[in-house]
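writing this on my phone so excuse typos. first protein, seq and then structure
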Amino acid sequence: MKTPTIASLAALAGLLLLAPSATGAQAADAPTDKNRGGTASSIDSNLDSVKKMTADYLAKQYGLDKETATKRVEAQGEFSSRAQRVTDELGGDSAGSYIDQKRGVLVVQATKDDAKNKVQDKVKNKNTEIKVVARSMSTLEDQAKKLTEKLGDKLVSARVDVPNNKVVVAVKKDQVNPAKEAAKGMDGVDVEGAEAIPEPQADLYGGQQYELARTMCSTGFMGTKDGKDVLITAGHCAELSPNLTRQGQPLATVAEFTWPQNDMAYAFLAPGWTGQPGVDKWNGRGVGVKGSQEAPVGAAVCKSGRTTGWTCGTITAKNVTINYSGSGRMGHGLTQSNTCTEGGDSGGAWIAGDQAQGIHSAGGAVPLQPGAPACGKNKDRGNTAFFQPINPLLQKYNLQLKLHQG
């Protein structure tokens, strides 16, 4: 029997898999195409290339020089920790936090002067600003929930706009006026018409990632359950079939999934596959996953998926509710980004630096003209993408995230 070769990451965006030579599935040779990724042995531990990619995005997006943009990326880890500490301290007086990338400042919001003063002394840092706003995070989330229930199938998405301390609901353009009527009397609510409808992004026309029921999705992170290797992916992909394959070979069997309320799943790897703790950068290398610290609104984040490869943006909202394909099947607790994604990216990995953030769930990129590729073609009109945060998934299924030790 031919000795198995190292599996190509082109077929496994968001997951590095190594097929051993002993028994089980035989990994195919890497195809020579534009989507070729790296191998399990090529996981980066120093993150220099990832830092550069993310800094390049910030520099271009916010008009920063490269040195400043790099410092902004390096500061995100500490910003994440600081935001969590201050938010916990504020409790019910918290109105959320976000990174202002234009100024390189973490902004923490409170609803009362005495609450601000309570934490002011604990945050003695010129790069952190605490300000008082009108509405607490719990108030805004309650408003978003009430309006979601009122609008029903008319809803496209509902989110808390932390920097502007308000709720933003998106509906189809012909539903804007009825939605405004439904929101009348509700404080801090904006209604906008949506050009793009978020779609669960599984590609029905085939591709390079894992296959199930004539559909292709992307693999997310690797973990373990009761000492066994598992693949973490999107629930709406796992719903289609319990059997995941790669290039015709058995890859994994779905153990549990949740969709549409949440979009999460895990599958036990088939014999012969060993999961590696890395994410494909689509440049022949992989980035090691060191943890799952949640990044704040405004943080730079990147996604790895089978269709669009490695794309980056910023986190724009959290705890978002969306209406998948306008079907009335609601997804809750999602994180929103302006990163470009397309069909087939579902299940892919979202990562900030070396910290896992979530699993790709849906997107609503708008092409410049019908039938044209959306990714990278519609910067003036904006991208919208949504991912299932990783930590609730790990907790729900009692999974351990595989971490890179290099």
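second protein below, same order as before
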Amino acid sequence: MPNMIKKINKINALKCLAVFGILFWSSYFPAQAVQLKVLSGNGSRPAVIEICKAFEALTGHQVIVEFAVNPKVRERVDGGEYVDVVVLNPPVLDQLITSKRVVPESKTPFGRIGVGAAIKAGAPTLDISNPEAFKKSLLSVTSVAYPGDGASGQYFVSLLSKMGIEKEMQAKLRPMSGEYNVEGVAKGEVDMIVVVASRIYGVPGVQFLGLIPKELQTWIGFSAGVGVSSKHSKEAEQLTQFFTQSQATGILKKIGIEPVND
């Protein structure tokens, strides 16, 4: 009889372990994969691409990502476009929360980075190590690109006034789309680009000069949120939370983005 009880207890224990295993692995490998649509600002493009690929590999879900400048993403979502996850600068994401297009509780800040500068690979390097050197470098080139509708571009234009070179720079400025600005430098269409530094990562044909001087610097944040229209809110929430997990933070650091969790 004692042996029989031991056998029964052993069987029950194995059943419990099996159930636990199924529950644990099913959270990562769902019985049915879904397709998630992500709309993201351009500043976090390289990070969003790599993090979404890592999420796909881990979960089996498919993630379709589209990029645009922050105001355009907000306009599309406010216009009723379907989206599962939105990735934007925090103030813009807050606007979508206010307009009831993003679930408030889903807001997930995950990183921040400063504004940087780059030139065409192989061109004579420029010194941007301090405010005076940065000013001289800006004045020395023929043209400077920046995202015309992006947060970093708007900040850069305001910075020129602070530096006292707004008039001298007017003829040199080349506002470009968020989808195509660093690439213009790589092709030699403009001499220099000033943009959120993460946007420069991974673009062939450019030389990263570094972040602009700390005295002139601003931080550009990135946050993710779940769209209220999402038909896969559980999976969308998993993706937003994945942006703060160790695998994602490793990707952020590689690109130069400082991970944040609050």
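The longest helix spans residues 2-26. thats all i got for now
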